[in-house]
């Protein structure tokens, strides 16, 4: 019975699942990383944490799972060391760190955590040491000895030359008048310091890193009798200016200052919030062609998009970045923020020249290159960064460049460079008109296109949209990459040159001498009208050679039997439009004859019923034509299938007979019908 009582809570927990077993408060990211470090260090004894140390530096990090396996921080190699987890110490002769550190006051705890320089400067002031040793409840973010040592000499001199004002105020700014552990250090919060109630900014990132005014927590939650000590890697200073005010006083932001004023974004940059401004310097603006820069500066919407693309939605201190992470801007795009050694990178490029300029509403990093979003670019500029430069050159040579740099709302269907690997077409009237049909009269987004939609081109054609399981196609050309939506135009990258339909299926066949025998067969079978009217057909069109390859007697017999000929021809016609880009590996396409055609595609080679297609995607207003070199034969009905059909017919007759039997009992008129059904069942 006693055992049952002890096991009951466990049984309930297992039955209720994780919600029951995790009834306590959720662990913070820092606590989760610390927990992982404990797990990795437990083989070395109790309370041992695995720590990653950057080779050649004193930088150490508690490790998460990803970093543990990669063994890199900011692309640099690390070594694993094992040390006592915060709050524990070794005992001679015993494994691990079994003993909790003895509790002492804040002043003594500073020495324990490796902040003896903070102790030293506390001694120099007249008032602070008695507070740290006396009653109360405080939190101190204590700079490490290395942090004090890295201060510029002039800054340190100004502090120690006036210990009871400057140094005392600096130390008080590192203190809060209550005990605060890491689970209370929430991302984007501010703590009131003991220096003039000035705010200290806290950021607690998903990767477990915690920063205090962009200084990283090295060792956290060291308890003292009168508070708690957190060791940090920098000496922090008060923050008084918001982002807008910093822009206004920095000489290197002259162009940025004018751009912000013109866009009206100054209200955002001086308002509440926690942003990261990737602030382009004057040099960054100077790198942009004058024509492009003047166009953007003169266009309020493009300018606003440009500046919003430099503002991240949350504050991101450099110390929090130990690997690449995606971050969203106010413009809505995503930037890849990463690091390489000591350098921060944006989209893989080391363009940040100065980092962690702290403001009351976020943090600023200086960048030496503009981050122009697609939404501020012309179609020409979008194409310059895509694999469609050959197509754009064709548009320029054809005298259509103004459409790609102006203010028309357009969608450009630009074929990939690989489409032209065998050469480009000569620029003549036909090619120019063809290129005009690669420009849609509206700025579209592919996610809103639907099957059967028609699009008007500058060349006067109507193009159809086909939606397949794994493809989105416009006529015979399918979209090969994500849209690029510019200021006025959208770029669709296409997998081939588009060929607009030039007539009905019958018009296509009549206009091509390869299909003269097929045209005659269609006319004999009475299918001409069908292939001339509106519809959606995929026609596998046997060329003359296909008919000529048939035995003469078989061909004559086929052509002499209009019904059989129509049946064979209908087997060559699918009941929907299937362009080659929509085939995928294999599609079973239902024919007008009733049986299905097996259409496959591999390495841009199309087969139907394992017969090679000679030419694909000849577009018609009511379908698409594939040229083939053989006449396709419907599959013969196997005996088993014939038996199944007879059984189905007999079952249907039996059902009807049963119904009429019941009805015949009440109606004399139905009795003869019932008798005829019985006769059918006998046969």
TrEMBL record:
<dbReference type="GO" id="GO:0030198">
    <property type="term" value="P:extracellular matrix organization"/>
</dbReference>
<keyword id="KW-1015">Disulfide bond</keyword>
<dbReference type="InterPro" id="IPR016666">
    <property type="entry name" value="TGFBI/POSTN"/>
</dbReference>
<keyword id="KW-0272">Extracellular matrix</keyword>
<keyword id="KW-0301">Gamma-carboxyglutamic acid</keyword>
<feature type="signal peptide">
    <location>
        <begin position="1"/>
        <end position="23"/>
    </location>
</feature>
<dbReference type="GO" id="GO:0007155">
    <property type="term" value="P:cell adhesion"/>
</dbReference>
<comment type="subunit">
    <text>Binds to type I, II, and IV collagens.</text>
</comment>
<dbReference type="InterPro" id="IPR011489">
    <property type="entry name" value="EMI_domain"/>
</dbReference>
<keyword id="KW-0732">Signal</keyword>
<dbReference type="InterPro" id="IPR036378">
    <property type="entry name" value="FAS1_dom_sf"/>
</dbReference>
<dbReference type="Pfam" id="PF02469">
    <property type="entry name" value="Fasciclin"/>
</dbReference>
<feature type="domain" description="FAS1">
    <location>
        <begin position="103"/>
        <end position="236"/>
    </location>
</feature>
<feature type="domain" description="EMI">
    <location>
        <begin position="45"/>
        <end position="99"/>
    </location>
</feature>
<protein>
    <recommendedName>
        <fullName>Transforming growth factor-beta-induced protein ig-h3</fullName>
    </recommendedName>
</protein>
<keyword id="KW-0130">Cell adhesion</keyword>
<dbReference type="GO" id="GO:0050839">
    <property type="term" value="F:cell adhesion molecule binding"/>
</dbReference>
<dbReference type="InterPro" id="IPR050904">
    <property type="entry name" value="Adhesion/Biosynth-related"/>
</dbReference>
<dbReference type="GO" id="GO:0031012">
    <property type="term" value="C:extracellular matrix"/>
</dbReference>
<dbReference type="InterPro" id="IPR000782">
    <property type="entry name" value="FAS1_domain"/>
</dbReference>
<feature type="domain" description="FAS1">
    <location>
        <begin position="375"/>
        <end position="498"/>
    </location>
</feature>
<keyword id="KW-0677">Repeat</keyword>
<keyword id="KW-0964">Secreted</keyword>
<keyword id="KW-0597">Phosphoprotein</keyword>
<feature type="domain" description="FAS1">
    <location>
        <begin position="240"/>
        <end position="371"/>
    </location>
</feature>
<comment type="function">
    <text>Plays a role in cell adhesion. May play a role in cell-collagen interactions.</text>
</comment>
<feature type="domain" description="FAS1">
    <location>
        <begin position="502"/>
        <end position="632"/>
    </location>
</feature>
<dbReference type="GO" id="GO:0005615">
    <property type="term" value="C:extracellular space"/>
</dbReference>
